[in-house]
Amino acid sequence: QVQLVESGGGLVQPGGSLRLSCAASGRFFSINNMSWYRQAPGKERELVAVITRATFRNYADSVKGRFTISRDNAKNMVYLQMNSLTPEDTAVYYCNAAIRQTVYSVSDSSTWGKGTLVTVSS
To answer: Rounded CA gap, 68 and 1, in Å?
Structure first.
């Protein structure tokens, strides 16, 4: 069984910064793409950033230039550095990973964390 646990959320003032972390634990062979999603109150969940195992990155237009996604393959962790935060960034942020369970697995499994709340307010 694989588990993803996010941490680092909290209350921050506009213009401030936060760094989110996500740790994968359990039994698995490897992790391919890792990503961060967010869901604001009353809105649909949206993709924020994605990073491949080879560290190719892509971002939503709304966060490009402000957020940076990174990963540590040895530690099975992914991070999201968030700078110049605005109230529009307020949301529950979710970690997602495409996990290859065993060396014989023919497809990846999509696994979600429980989320961590980020509130940007004065």
So the answer is: 29
For residue 1, is pLDDT > 80?
no
Q: Distance between CA 47 and CA 22 in Å, rounded?
A: 16
How is 45-111 classified by DSSP, letter by letter?
Answer: -EEEEEE-TT--EEE-TTTTTTEEEEEETTTTEEEEEE-S--GGG-EEEEEEEEEE-STT-SS-EEE
How far apart are alpha carbons 72 and 114 in whole angstroms?
Answer: 20
What is the side-by-side order of every strand in the sheet holding 67-72?
2-7, 18-26, 77-82, 67-72
Return the CA Rg of the chain.
14
* pLDDT tens figures, 42-96: 999 999 999 999 999 999 999 999 999 999 999 999 999 999 999 999 999 999 9
